[in-house]
């Protein structure tokens, strides 16, 4: 069924000038852009967004990385969006990411891995609503 996922182009990829390249890979893979903006997470936003990882050893590093500069936030729509988008982005660790994935091409490291993709339909809805009002969803 057609459904939605949520993505962020993370600060590392924005800093390196990869917004256009990543959006091209996304649209060429058949995703429709429902919502799109350049924005920046505050420390408090990043803490809330990644609250599920609060007990992990890398939480502090993750929060400071994700709030250090602008990101691109987007809601995407496609058949089987959540699963297909996670295939398109590739493994969390770019060393394990397959050829043709966004992380293979653009990620720097396990932490600075260029893109986020929601892990479930439920989280996609929560994460999309975190960034976009109803009138910003097309
Ligand atoms: P993502 O899977 O999008 O969301 C959780 C993020 O935590 C992950 O991307 C990485 O950016 C980060 N992360 C996961 N594992 C590690 C790790 N071992 N060290 C540093 N950051 C990590």
What features would you describe in this structure?
This protein has helices at 11-15, 19-28, 43-49, 59-66, 81-89, 102-106, 121-131; strands at residues 2-9, 32-39, 71-79, 115-117. By secondary structure, the chain is an alpha+beta fold. The protein has one domain (2-136): 2-Layer Sandwich (Alpha-Beta Plaits). The chain is globular and about 35 Å long. The protein binds adenosine-3',5'-cyclic-monophosphate. Adenosine-3',5'-cyclic-monophosphate binds next to helix 4. One of its GO terms (biological process) is GTP biosynthetic process. It is an enzyme of class 2 (transferase).
Number of domains: 1
- Beta-strand residue percentage: 15-25%
| Number of DSSP strand runs | 4
CATH topology: Alpha-Beta Plaits
Mean pLDDT: 97
Name given to the CATH homologous superfamily: Nucleoside diphosphate kinase-like domain
Query: What low-confidence regions span 5 or more consecutive residues with pLDDT below 50?
Result: none
What is the terminal-to-terminal distance? 18 Å
